[in-house]
Design goal:
Blueprint (H helix, E strand, L loop, with lengths): L5 E7 L3 E6 L6 E2 L13 E2 L9 H12 L7 E4 L11 H11 L5 E5 L7 H6 L5 E4 L6 H8 L7 H14 L3 E7 L8 H14 L3 E5 L15 H14 L4 E3 L14 H13 L4 H8 L3 H13 L3 E6 L2 E6 L2
Parallel strand pairs: 2-5, 3-4, 5-6, 6-7, 7-8, 8-9, 9-10
Antiparallel strand pairs: 1-2, 11-12
Helix pairs in contact: 5-6, 9-10
The chain binds iron/sulfur cluster.
Iron/sulfur cluster binds next to loops.
Length: 315
């Protein structure tokens, strides 16, 4: 079966063997983060919709899970914001009811969590991984380029409320862009916000694939260490750096057939990750990880043009 909504299982350091479930079209999101690795948001929206019939997603899950594959998590993620899917609550309830042996994780930017109905819908998840990259409005605007009705103050309040209502694990991700959100003032403000949210852990991330905007660069290890030490000193919770996780470290080898197909395509003409995803029938997140690995193996030339980031095979 060719899956439209499932990808992986991918091997992730944070989540182990994780089956991705994508329930929104490319690229619907309330944010347009400058560091987004699936590139710029095309539909900046707060409108929740049933983008795909619930039955279609359930049928793929039933097919994939009928052999009871070993998984550490089933994870809502993808190339947009999963909580925009209006029937996510029913989907979560279905998975928990039919497949209670699997843990469920939700990767979210948290921007819709001011909605009480949505917070209630996601209560059965075992793990929620929201993001908080800024504490002041100007830095939030610069990094996350939100829908005009959003503010970081509202996001922080929503996360505090979620923590009070939700008994599962919350791992809060902070994406560091050197020179933007690592100033003393912003780190102080972030510490106060995180102390109020009380997540179970804080995970510090940085760029490892081409971002939506060229000026965004990977924070060096000195910067990440400094931020990590600062958080550890001021927060009563585990803090870890999750940036620079290479596929090699995870022992993942790319299938030879996939590498050959990519070589054949990219030797003829440069393509974007999105084009490759369509051509090969693979989820954009899987293609992105594959391209990252090939780039680390020094197989690719990467260039940025008006239409996005293009990949070509090195000759
Ligand atoms: S990083 Fe996540 S929240 Fe930000 S634009 Fe990309 S998909 Fe949306």
């Amino acid at each position: 079966m060719n899956y439209k909504h499932l990808f992986g299982p991918v091997l992730s350091r944070r989540l182990g063997h994780s089956l991705g479930v994508d329930v929104v079209p490319y690229k619907y999101c309330p944010l347009n983060c400058v560091y987004c690795e699936v590139q710029r948001t095309t539909q900046l929206t707060l409108q929740r919709e049933e983008f795909f019939p619930l039955e279609e997603i359930i049928s793929e899950l039933d097919e994939f899970l009928k052999g009871r594959p070993p998984l550490d998590y089933i994870t809502f993620s993808g190339a947009g914001e999963p909580t925009l899917y209006s029937r996510i609550g029913e989907l979560i309830a279905y998975i928990k009811d039919r497949y209670p042996q699997y843990k469920l994780a939700l990767l979210t930017n948290g921007m819709l969590l001011d909605r009480e109905d949505l917070r209630r819908d996601i209560l059965p998840c075992d793990l929620i991984l929201p993001s908080l990259d800024a504490c002041s409005e100007p830095v939030f605007e610069r990094i996350n380029r939100p829908h005009p009705e959003l503010s970081v103050t509202k996001l922080i309040e929503s996360l505090v409320t979620l923590r009070k209502e939700y008994k599962g694990q919350i791992w809060l991700e902070v994406f560091i862009i050197a020179g933007v959100n690592d100033t003393q003032e912003e780190l102080d403000c972030l510490c106060r916000a995180i102390a109020g949210i009380k997540p179970d852990r804080v995970q510090i991330n940085s760029l490892d694939r081409p971002a939506a905007e060229e000026w965004v660069q990977t924070a060096d290890s000195k910067t990440l260490d400094r931020v990590s030490k600062y958080f550890k000193k001021h927060l009563q919770m585990p803090v870890e750096i999750i940036a620079k996780v290479h596929l090699e470290d995870l022992g993942l080898e790319l299938p030879q057939e996939l590498v050959s197909n990519l070589e054949a395509l990219l030797s003829r003409r440069p393509c974007t990750a999105e084009e490759l995803s369509h051509s090969l029938g693979m989820h954009i997140n899987e293609i992105s990880k594959t391209l990252r690995q090939l780039n680390m193996d020094n197989k690719l030339n990467i260039s940025r043009e008006e239409r996005g980031v293009f990949y070509a095979w090195k000759r």
